[in-house]
Amino acid sequence: MDFSDVFEHAPVPILIVLQGRIAHCNQAAIEVLGFLGFEVSKERLGELDSLMAVILEEREEAERNIELILGSGQVIRNIPRTLRDVSGNRVAALVSAGPCTWEGQAAVAVSFVLLGLGPAIASPDRGELPDRRAGLLQGLTPQEARVARLLAEGHDTAGLRRLLGIQTSTLRGYIKSIYRKLDVHSRSDLVRRVLGHR
Predict the structure, then answer these.
(1) Maximum alpha-carbon separation in the chain
(2) What letter does residue 114 receive in the DSSP assignment?
């Protein structure tokens, strides 16, 4: 299956990995990699190591996962992975990947969700933020702060509705209020503001 049309506008970052390089990625992936400080453009994709953001200690395991997917067609879901930004800050993430075909060749589709920076990782159940970022959300209600954090981590609106047990109209109201109170105009602005980076 050729995923080029399917994932282009997906709300989560998705990369196509072909022979150790990023063959293609959606806009969400470009924004998140940019947030981590990596200069990514559609024109430079073939030059980029698919594991460039994975910390050195986990690269070998990540390579084995890719080989397993290519060799067996197995899908992996929600594997904890530690990424890093260009400054070396650690970023907790959950990675899912599976086999696909890209331009007639066997490839791997990888999606990931950032969980947070540094050792203090927020739990979706607690709704907490690392202390140095908590002040950025002052002025939001506790539920708005939780929604803002979950949106910045890459959750889509359908997932948020299920996780929070709220209606679409209620979620839209929260998002509208969050954008107004934080003076942001896009998801990438929200990511930068909530995660307090760049």
Answers:
(1) 51
(2) E
Question: Which pair of tokens denotes residue 13?
Answer: 């970052």
What phi and psi values does residue 121 have, to the nearest 5 degrees? -95, 130
- C-alpha 70/C-alpha 119 separation (Å) is 32
- List per-residue pLDDT tens for the chain, 198 residues long: 455 566 677 778 888 999 888 988 888 888 888 878 888 777 777 778 888 889 888 889 999 999 999 999 899 888 888 888 877 778 888 899 999 998 899 999 999 888 765 433 333 433 444 444 455 667 788 788 888 877 877 777 887 888 778 888 888 998 999 889 888 888 777 877 776 544
Task: Give the bridge partners for 16, in sequence order.
Answer: 24, 109
Neighbour tally for 189: CB within 10 Å: 15
Name residue 54's beta-bridge partners. 83
